[in-house]
Write a structure and sequence with these properties.
Length: about 400
Amino acid sequence: MIPEPDGAARLHPSDLARHYSRFRVSERVLLTGHSHQAWPDVAFDAQRQAWLDAAEMVDDKWNRAFEVADEVRAGYRRLLDDPDGEIVLGQNTHELVIRFLSALPLRERPRLVTTDGEFHTIRRQLDRLEEEGIEVVPVGTGGGDSIAERIIQAVDDRTAAVLVSSVLFRDARIVEGLDEVATACAGGGAELLVDAYHSLNVVPFSVVGMGLRDAFVVGGGYKYCQLGEGNCFLRFPRDCRLRPVSTGWFAEFGTLAGEGREGRGRVEYGEGHLRFAGSTYDPVSHYRAAAVFAFFREQGLTEQRAREVSLRQIRRLAAGVDALDPDPAVLSRDRAVRLSSRGGFLALETPRAGEICCKLRGRGVYADSRGRVLRLGPAPYVTDRQLDDAVGVLGEVVGTLSRQP
């Protein structure tokens, strides 16, 4: 772990905001931190550098691009507290999940266990596989029972893999007991894929501490990492010997000689992260990501510090909403789960989530909704005054709706 520099604990959002001038974070209230955080200005300079490198080096730019990719992998390794796994990068989590699924022995073990709270990347793909005859078992995430225990009970000797989030995308609940799920998968011969997107850089995640050394972990930087599009990863065990059917020619690096493999023998895979590699990609996003990771280190924005800031902001938002005492038929907050057991946003239940979201946007407060859930996601550059202003606007909007017949 990287220690915080002196004074990091005193870093104020208004001081940090000046580094996000192009996103105008001081001029509007951006509570979309759980979806798309602002990018620091260094990201703009990095994208420009990628263009200049291409112009200068032309096709020789790839040596530099691979160096930058290694910096991005190192950034993710720090966030995952993962000293010995392999990390392959991808443009989006879907392509990486597809490679994972394609490596599973689905003929022999045609059963996948998941939850009914997974993001659409996993949900939709598994729905489609089910149409093709793969048995998909989505355990429920509602109620007070342990999600991990439900998953464990669903795993049998026909299960090829378990796919589960570390933080649920709808209501930010942290899924406890993933170490127990990992143990059950290992004992039953099933693989475990953890979607850590809503943990990364807002809820500390430790491959070692959570007992996930033998697990696959997928995630990306579009949300809390401020890396933007094109910066996703798949972490897998170093001793993995699975052979993904969906495989790109980059996965042959290190196995080719001269013009390439002759004949039609067994398809080989490169060493390390190359096993799950794809093909030619746009490296600009990696330039941006490497610059942002470096910026975080300079500012002392470790994952522990990010969690502290996030929890304080969410508690302030929650206290403000509670003080509004809104009509529960219009807006309510689930208090059964402690805020410390949730991730990086505040989830509010309302049958008019989309409408409220639009009215907030019209007043300069950016939020989003998922079904009946209004999501308010702060970020380190959002000030307390902006949080309070957002709650005030929310109160006015909800009050207007409450008075409507």
